[in-house]
Structures are given as C-alpha cells and as structure tokens.
Amino acid sequence: MLQVHADRFALAEVFTIARGSRTHADVLRVVVTREGMTGQGECVPYARYGESLESVRAQISGLREDVTRAALQEALPAGAARNAVDCALWDHAAKHMRRRVWKLAGLAAPQPVVTAFTLSLDTPERMEAAARRHAHRPLLKIKLGTPDDMPRLEAVRRGAPGTRIIIDANEGWTAEVYAELAPHLLRLGVAMVEQPLPAGADEMLAEIDRPLPVCADESCHDRASLAGLRGKYDMVNIKLDKTGGLTEALALRDAARAAGFKVMVGCMVGSSLAMAPAVLVAQGAELVDLDGPLLLAEDRDPPLHYDDKGVHPPLPALWG
C-alpha cells in the first residue's frame, strides 16, 4: 500500500531567498506498507521545477501499489515524487530485512558530517546580527542574488569574521555581475559560489575566469545533467528532491566524482525525515548543507541529532 500525507512544519524564523519568503515548510510524506512492515520517505515539491503538492501527489497516486525501486526509476522522472517513494522503499527494505540502509546499499558505516547553516536574505544589519548569533558554526551559507549583495556579504563577514562562508546566488546574477563581484568574494574569504547564473543561461561560465569554485545547483539534477556541466562548474550540489531519491543520488555522486567534479550535498527546507537519507550521500562530500531541521520550530520524532560534530546518521526509528 502507498499512502501520501501532507505535513506542515512551522519555521523558527521567516526564511527568505531571492525568489520569496516562507513561514512554513510544506512537505509530502509517503508511507509504504507491505508484509506488515512500514517505510517512510519525505519530499519537498519545488515550484522552481514546476512542482506543487498537488502535482507531486498525483504522480505518486499513479504508481502501482507493488512498484519496486528498479521499476520506479523508469515510472517517474527525477524529482520530488520519485524521491519520497524511493526513500520510503529503502526504509521499508531496511525494516523488512532488519538491516540498515547503508548495509543494503553496500556503503561504509556513516559518520557525522559538518553541515552549513543558512542565513536567509535580509537587510545587512539583520544579516550581520544573525551572523553574530551563529558565528560559532564552522560553515555559514548566505542567500544572495540581488543588486545589493555586497553590503550584505560585508555585514556577514563582520558578524562572523572567523567562519567559513559559502554563497548561494539562486540564479540571481549575470555573468557581468559575477565577474565584478568575484574579486570581492575572494577578498572576503568566500569558499564557493553556488549557481550564480540562471540554469540554461550559464554558458558564460565556460568563458570567464572562475577564481573560486562554482557549484551547479539548478543546473544539475541527475547523471544526465553532468555532460552539460563540463567546463562551466567545479562542483555539483546533489539534492534528493532533484535526483529523485537515494538510488539516483548515490549514482550521481559516483559519476560526478569520476567526471572530476567535487561534491556538495544539499537540501530543500524539510524535516529530519527528508535529511536522513541525504546523510548517507554526504559521506566524504567536500561540502554539506543539510540544515533543514535547524530552520524549523518543530520536527519529526525522533529527529536527527546535531552537535559540534555536525549532523549524525538517523536512528532506525526515524529512517533506514
């Protein structure tokens, strides 16, 4: 049996990027029940990719009740719907076979991984204050992508002078803007810039200097994306809601490394259930951004555990 549930989680604070603001995380949870065992997976439909709660629910409802992981890869395209079902099937298999998912997938035992903490887009003054509150964290991610980005970045660096910083421009710059900003990013110690140009209009990245690593987010979904990224990007951001689940995410990670790309593992704003399988993909990644639960005012029970070592692998009661 395949069941779909819509869940809503309040955010701890309003979360803003260049595309808009939100106060809640709206997710879909898929429950697979077979042979007396239940598995769960979560996805976050994303309007940027033409997804909504309704469209993703319809995709899932069109599946066979007995769909397998292998059949699922052909039945649905890469995206949120396939992600939730794929992760639920992995969870079900782990519970049915009484083995952790990482063992079923032939992976080494996962360890905690250091994750970025994201500061949402705001006034320079408020972003500086937020940076001061989170200056103890080893890695901060800043949402930019507006005409007034430099004052914000300068403010964050003042607030967290010793913290490593990465930037997500959310497709908000032009090639000219990026070329103008790049020396200042280096001056301020930025370690990486994510998706500076719009997906589909990023050819100039192959023509201009890339003095710091550039990561593909909206331009990279699954293994089929990789051929178009060569010469333009240095890193790929793997998100399960883009790959369509753990199965493709692991395959993309291996293919990206084989093609010479560094790996970042990221997330949409979801609960610990959405992050749990991504922790497996994040093992050995150069950058990890699995802070979704840290942005919530409420979470699953049991949640993922976060401490000074980063985000820990999930307990079996949560997933896998």
Give a written overview of the molecule.
By secondary structure, this protein is of the alpha/beta class. The protein has helices at about 55-60, 70-75, 80-95, 100-105, 125-135, 150-160, 175-185, 240-245, 245-260, 270-280; strands at about 1-15, 20-35, 35-45, 115-120, 140-145, 165-170, 190-195, 215, 235-240, 260-265, 285-290, 305, 310. The chain has an eight-stranded parallel β-sheet with strand order 4-5-6-7-8-9-10-11. It has a three-stranded antiparallel β-sheet with strand order 1-2-3. The chain has a two-stranded antiparallel sheet with strand order 12-13. Helix 1 crosses helix 3 (about 80-95) and helix 5 runs parallel beside helix 6 (about 150-160). The mean pLDDT is about 95.
Mean pLDDT: 95
Radius of gyration: 19 Å
Report the sheet with the most strands, covering strand number, pairing sense and barrel closure: 8 strands, parallel
| Secondary-structure element series | EEEHHHHEHEHEHEEEHHEHEEE
- The number of strands is 13
Helix percent reads 25-40%
- Regions with pLDDT < 50 over 5+ consecutive residues? none
Q: What is the CA-CA span between the terminal residues?
A: 19 Å
Beta fraction: 15-25%
Largest sheet strand order: 4-5-6-7-8-9-10-11
Overall geometry: globular
Total of helices: 10
Helix-strand category: alpha/beta
